[in-house]
Design brief:
Layout (H helix, E strand, L loop, with lengths): L1 H11 L8 E4 H15 L6 E6 L5 E4 L1 H17 L6 E9 L2 E8 L20 H5 L8 H11 L3 E4 L7 E8 L1
Parallel strand pairs: 2-4
Antiparallel strand pairs: 1-3, 4-5, 5-7, 6-7
Helix pairs in contact: 1-5, 2-3, 3-5
């Protein structure tokens, strides 16, 4: 949490520096998921994934983007009481790489789908279920994605309660 707050302060002050490098998107994302699964083995959360073989190389700050994806995966686990089914897909879509983080947790109310990315916003279901958080995590993720020229939003997909879509430019 302290790291998130310090990172947030740097971003808000315009002092966050991104060190971008050409990155094999598929290889990077598989490594992120592998590391997340390893760290969360005790939580009985396992992330299943389908990553297209033809993902292009994109320019990114791997450390910042890894933290963003970890945050999304952590939210998927945190907001999935009981059985934790988490999915990640990645594909090339037009001039973007589309990464989706999916879960079968408590879901996101339709009227809150844009608000969850605002700083300090906490959804009704999060409050009702007493799920810990500061309301900064998704704001940090949004800032990081936007600093890479991308966008983030919630989408609907059959069989999943929450789906966060990240679009990164090629």
């Amino acid at each position: 949490m302290v790291g998130n707050i310090l990172n947030f302060a740097k971003i808000e002050e315009g002092k966050k520096v991104y060190r971008k490098e050409n990155t094999d998107t598929g290889l990077w994302l598989k490594q992120v998921i592998h590391n997340f699964n390893k760290e969360n083995f005790e939580n009985t959360a396992s992330v299943q994934f389908q990553i297209a073989a033809d993902l292009p190389v994109i320019s990114m700050d791997k450390e910042a983007m890894t933290q963003a994806i970890f945050n999304l995966l952590d939210n998927a686990v945190k907001f999935s009481p009981g059985r934790k089914e988490i999915g990640v897909t990645a594909e090339k879509l037009d001039n973007t790489v589309l990464i989706k983080i999916k879960d079968k947790g408590i879901g996101i109310e339709k009227d809150e789908s844009a608000k969850i990315f605002e700083k300090f916003y906490r959804g009704k279901k999060a409050i009702e279920n007493s799920i810990r958080g500061t309301g900064l995590g998704l704001t940090l993720v949004k800032y990081t994605i936007e600093a890479h020229g991308g966008t983030i939003k919630t989408v609907t997909e059959t069989g999943w309660n929450s789906v966060i879509a990240v679009f990164l430019p090629i």
